[in-house]
Amino acid sequence: LFYRSCVKPHSYWKNRGVLQGKSVWMFGENWKLLLGQESFAESVQRIYNKFANVRYFGTYQFNTPVLVIKDPELIKQITIKDFEHFVDHRMWVPETTDEMWTHNLFSLKGEEWKEMRAFLSPAFTGRKMRSMFTLMNDASKHFIQYLEGKNETMLELDFKDFFTRYSCDIIATTGFGVEVDSLKYPNNEFFRMATEAGKLTGIKMAVFFVSFFLPNFILKMLNVKIFSTRVSQFVTKLVDETIRTREEKNIVRPDMIHLMMEARKGKHEYDLVDEDDNDGAFASLKNSSPNLNQKMPKMEITNNMIAAQALIFIVGGLETVAVLARFMAYELAVHQDIQEKLRNEINETLEGLENNVTYEAIHKMKYMDMVVTETLRRWPSGLALERICTKEYTIPPKKAGEKELLIEEGTLLWIPVIGLHYDPEYFSNPEKMDPERFNDENKNKINKDAYLPFGQGPRLCIGNRYALLETKVIFFHILKTFKIVPVEKSSIPIKIVKNSFILDGHNFKFGLKKL
Ligand code: HEM
Prior knowledge:
three-stranded antiparallel β-sheet; alpha+beta; 20 helices
């Protein structure tokens, strides 16, 4: 049994004529990560750089054979052109043990995923973002008022905590219509549950490792879950109560719960002609929505289904946005010239707006978009993408030495995003924070299939525009009021946390100097 499950799998790629590196029985390529010797980001980069001049190679995550795809053209083929062969993400736990996880958009498979994506997509169009903008703008202004209320010319701030609270309040108000004010009430229940849901520690970390080793039927017997019962019950109750109150009192609010309720009633325009689809933001250009939106989903959308989506929006949107924002604050503190240029754009934008920024005005800010886009290149929280081969697929030979490769159904594929983002072939001088890569002149020279902060193809992050908007809005308000500066406690250059699967730094303490 040991041989079959822990030794034999490690020659899977060799036996198929695919290049593979040294792999340790049971642990594959992951032992350094397990021993805390490298961060997940370093691990992905090390694996990416293992073989030069190849389009793909084999590796092992513990005992699971994984095909690593390096070539942008092949990535495009897998994520877009031949998507029908690679529809699913990995599910991690058996379908029945944790329905809040397995019924969410990220985990749903095949036809069910397509229907759910079609059901949810209308809630994330440019037009819907415009209506959510007011909620985001109000929450941002509230955060700035809080800081101004401290009445200090120089404020020292933990940006990690600050942006996690901001991101949480935005999800609470735009998702559920709940005003939680996480700065004033730091221990509010929504914040506690949201941060607990998103953390990969304790039991969840154990599940993560165990799922690599144990077969599904044992995971089922052990009733292994991703979300704690406490978190699942909290979100289910919140969704149930919100829906009931809205129906009883006919409340209409431009948030996600409302949009999902409308979609359930069939009140969405399923012909998604979205005038903002080509909004020019580089990071969201990949919004190649498939033809999913033309028909109403057939599946019955229950309150529990809505709750599962609400929970993945919390998990998918909380930490990712907080990571982007704290690394952007770090870059702006270190690169005062970039910060100054961005502030000039903000001041120019404000001219004629009587201090009231609009969705359209934020949308038109080119330099803001360049700074956020470059921050996402340097610090992509989705370090690697995964796809499961759902229908046998053949990669024809292209380079010298390659043979035809048949990918079996069920094979796990890995796209090492951070490796591509730091590959000098696609981004010259990759260690440099340089927003000019994405200016009008240069952005067309970039290989778009090598820039993947939100993934690519029909499975692209559904919240990408939402995340960009919420980040731009808060920086707009911070920079028009304050200057972000390094302080004695700042850690420059930033030290990356080793024992975390999430891209993170050790210390995000910076100063805010009143302008
Ligand atoms: C900077 C912020 C964010 C980053 C970097 C990010 C990144 C990603 C990535 C890399 C994926 C996988 C895409 C793929 O497999 O091709 C993904 C999927 C997803 N994200 Fe995000 N995300 C962010 C914000 C958000 C927000 C704000 C939400 C919700 C409000 C969200 C909800 C989701 C969902 C539901 C999926 C699964 C989509 C599907 O499988 O159809 N994300 N995200």
